[in-house]
Design brief:
- The longest helix has 21 residues, at about 185-205.
- The chain folds into two domains: about 5-150, Rossmann fold (3-Layer(aba) Sandwich); about 165-250, ProC C-terminal domain-like fold (Orthogonal Bundle), CATH 1.10.3730.
- Helix 8 (about 165-180) crosses helix 9 (about 185-205).
- The relative contact order is 0.09.
- By secondary structure, it is an alpha/beta fold.
- It is built from twelve helices and eight strands.
- The protein has helices at about 10-20, 35-45, 55-60, 75-80, 100-105, 135-140, 155-160, 165-180, 185-205, 215-220, 225-235, 240-250; strands at about 5, 30, 50, 65, 90, 110-115, 125-130, 145-150.
- The protein starts with a strand and ends in a 9-residue tail after the last helix.
- Pfam families: F420_oxidored (PF03807).
- One of its GO terms (molecular function) is pyrroline-5-carboxylate reductase activity.
- Belongs to the pyrroline-5-carboxylate reductase family.
């Protein structure tokens, strides 16, 4: 299958890198000139990546078209482009569901939305596909844990769930900073904390659904250090505040708003 990318930004580059390093035969990938630096780098690095002169040229050459650009740019970017009815559309656009993209790509109405996250470059993390499509699942297999949604109204829920990445790294770095401030060498502190969190993530992945609620108490001793930190944060409303923050983002965030300068 020939795959075309309209927009070669950070997310597209991570996906293309992951595709190139997962093994097996490589499909031809056509790159739009949108994102000149990255598309030029990829075309120079990988023989199966070909940079074309226009978005329309990418569409004309492709069986599957991946659309990856900011939500507030997509309508203007697609308005003068012509798609074919036999084409499959894989949209990375946040805030516009598959039914909305299908209106912009008609007569190409086989549209799935994907939510690729940065860890995809390491073949890790979840990859949402909504709705399921066998060709999309096949072409993006091996890039992470594929999560299928059939109801496009639920995409926003997982988008907000994903929007905890910067919070996670702030949490990580705060622990590292405290460790350094209390006399541990920066390299040692960084290595220890990152390895600690990686180990916990592995344990979380290995647990069954029924075991998840018990993980906190299984990783603490009553009255011990873990107990003191968790219950102290709980008494301060830390976990309730996090839940409420997610709900506020879900209710009020405008995913199509123009990013602030």
């Amino acid at each position: 299958m020939k795959i075309g990318f309209l927009g070669v930004g950070t997310v597209s580059m991570a996906v293309i890198e992951a595709m190139a390093t997962r093994g097996g035969d490589q499909d031809t990938i056509f790159l739009s000139p949108r994102g000149e630096k990255r598309s030029t780098e990829l075309a120079a690095k990988y023989q199966h990546c070909v940079r074309l002169d226009s978005n329309q040229a990418v569409i004309d050459a492709s069986d599957m078209v991946v659309i990856s650009m900011l939500p507030n740019q997509v309508e203007d970017a697609l308005v003068d482009l012509t798609f074919r009815s036999d084409q499959i559309i894989a949209s990375f656009i946040a805030g516009i569901p598959p039914s909305g993209i299908a209106k912009l790509t008609a007569p190409a109405t086989q549209v799935s939305q994907l939510i690729p996250l940065p860890a995809i470059v390491h073949h890790k993390g979840p990859l949402v596909i909504c709705p399921a499509h066998p060709d999309v699942e096949r072409e993006f297999a091996g890039l992470g844990d594929i999560v299928i949604l059939d109801d496009e109204t639920k995409i926003r829920v997982l988008s907000v769930t994903s929007a905890t990445m910067s919070t996670y790294f702030t949490y990580q770095n705060t622990i590292i900073d405290w460790t350094i401030a209390n006399g541990i060498n920066p390299d040692t502190a960084s290595k220890y904390v990152r390895s600690l969190l990686e180990g916990l993530a592995i344990e979380g992945q290995a647990a069954t659904q029924a075991e998840l609620p018990h993980l906190p108490v299984e990783h603490e001793t009553p009255g011990g250090l873990n107990f003191r930190n968790r219950t102290g944060l709980q008494e301060q409303g830390w976990f309730t505040d996090l839940y409420d923050r997610l709900q506020d983002t879900y209710t009020n965030a405008d995913l199509k708003a123009k990013p602030k300068e």
